[in-house]
Specification:
Elements (H helix, E strand, L loop, with lengths): L1 H41 L5 H24 L12 H23 L7 H36 L5 E6 L3 H12 L5 E7 L9 E2 L2 E5 L4 H8 L3 E4 L6 H13 L4 E3 L17 E2 L2 H5 L8 H8 L8
Parallel strand pairs: 1-2, 1-5, 2-4, 5-6
Antiparallel strand pairs: 3-4, 6-7
């Protein structure tokens, strides 16, 4: 129990530390964005009146902008999972912040040039957004390196389909090394993808070469990552794997992936419905036996 409390306390302290760093970084970015806009406007030689005017405006503009950022949740979001929705929040917050700058500056003795009001939010988005999305990139690389350390201990998986779903499988495997999935390569029938790489993992050949690729790379399992594949395609790939006595699994079909995401816990065995393209027909055995009893049957 003590270890749990200690871990929770440490996590809380880390969260506060990150918030403080972001807050201080944003305060610096707010000032640098305005100064950068002035430098661009005056080509490096900023007139003293504009600097003095901004120094007075900053006492209102910076705290007000930080309050706006807080209101838009820029300090509550988990930036390691940043998405387009988070980018939208940044744009909205910067837009409101820019309005504060215009309002405060217009009341000063030397209002800033209009070009500054345009350049400032552009620079601010780059700084604010860049700082946050770099968190996602750095943490993503850290998780990927952790996954690479565990490559030797996981199941060696060959992914069929070097598309969006296959890339998601690779990313999931790298971010969750505890699942023990080691993607050794892809196969795809698109000639334009052959020989290319996805996050450093090569496309090794077309689906016809699955047995040879699996033998060469000591593959434990084949994963079909083509949610939109037709039943004919699924049957062909499954047949290739079955003849080579390979273990094969698949992702859910496109209609099962309603949210458009791919997770490794959704991987399942290939089912008869995947090969037929429809639900399997269930027969009433008793009824069939009663109907055929005593009859001579020719099966064609």
């Amino acid at each position: 129990m003590g270890e749990v409390v200690s871990g929770a306390t440490k996590s809380s302290a880390n969260g506060i530390y990150q918030h403080v760093l972001l807050l201080l970084g944003d305060a610096v970015s707010l000032n640098l964005a305005v100064l950068g806009a002035l430098v661009l406007r005056f080509e490096g030689a900023i007139p003293e009146p504009f600097l003095g005017s901004y120094a007075l405006v900053a006492w209102f503009y910076v705290p007000a902008s930080l309050g706006v950022f807080w209101a838009f949740g820029l300090y509550r979001r988990m930036w390691r999972y940043a998405s387009l929705q988070d980018a939208g929040a940044i744009l909205k917050a910067v837009g409101v912040s820019a309005c504060f700058l215009v309002m405060a500056s217009s009341l000063s003795q030397h209002p800033q040039p209009r070009s500054v009001y345009i350049l400032n939010p552009v620079l601010l988005v780059v700084m604010i957004g860049g700082a946050r999305y770099s968190i996602r990139v750095l943490l993503g690389r850290k998780r990927w390196r952790q996954g690479e350390r565990n490559l030797g201990s996981g199941r060696r998986v060959l992914v069929v389909g070097a598309g969006a779903a296959g890339a998601m499988v690779l990313r999931e495997a790298g971010q969750h090394p505890g699942l023990g999935v080691n993607v050794v390569g892809f196969v795809d029938d698109d000639p334009g993808k052959l020989g290319r790489e996805i996050q450093g993992v090569p496309v090794l050949g077309p689906t016809e070469q699955i047995p040879a690729v699996c033998d060469q790379h000591k593959v434990d399992e084949v994963l079909i990552a083509i949610p939109s594949a037709s039943s004919k395609t699924m049957a062909r790939i499954h047949s290739i794997c079955s003849r080579a006595h390979l273990k094969v699994k698949t992702l859910p079909g496109v209609y099962e992936l309603i949210d458009g995401t791919v997770r490794l816990d959704r991987i399942r065995e290939v089912q008869i419905e995947d090969l037929l393209g429809r639900k399997a027909t269930v027969w009433d055995a008793n009824q069939v036996v009663g109907y055929l009893k005593g009859e001579t049957i020719l099966v064609t």
